[in-house]
Write a structure and sequence with these properties.
This protein has 3 helices and 6 strands, in the order E-E-H-E-E-H-E-H-E. It has a single domain, classed as Pnp Oxidase, Chain A. The radius of gyration is 15 Å and the shape is elongated. Strands 1, 2, 3, 4, 5 and 6 form a 6-stranded antiparallel sheet that branches. It is mostly beta strands and 115 residues long. The two termini are 28 Å apart.
Length: 115
């Protein structure tokens, strides 16, 4: 899955409309995201968990143009035929307490979101 984030901490991803997660989003826009480095050592706990609201992203110019990301298109017109772009606006943002304190541990703490 292709994704990126903008300076306001909105997440964007591109996926097939027939995928299970897109079908779920179309029925219920409340989503949860978990992003972590799958190659980190066990129990390091570097990652984030996010609650948010997902919506189809349909502007002709989009953040991918200025932010980029791993193989992200720069404009919606460059998305492969049949794919759809989504925006997730976070409502809650969590990180492991240990990550904030430089220790091991996986107790999560909420970070205040900018308004």
């Amino acid at each position: 899955m292709q994704f990126c984030v903008d300076n306001a901490i909105n997440f964007y991803f591109v996926s097939l409309p027939t995928s299970r997660h897109v079908q779920h989003i179309l029925k219920n826009s409340l989503v949860g995201l978990a992003i972590f480095d799958s190659q980190q050592e066990t129990f390091i706990g570097r990652g984030v968990q996010i609650d948010g609201l997902a919506s189809i992203y349909s502007k002709t110019e989009n953040p991918f143009a200025t932010i980029g990301g791993l193989d992200m298109p720069t404009k919606l017109s460059e998305i492969a035929p049949g794919y759809v772009a989504f925006k997730v606006k976070p409502t809650h943002f969590y990180v492991p307490r240990g990550y904030l304190e430089g220790k091991l541990g996986d107790e999560r703490v909420e970070i205040n979101m900018p308004q």
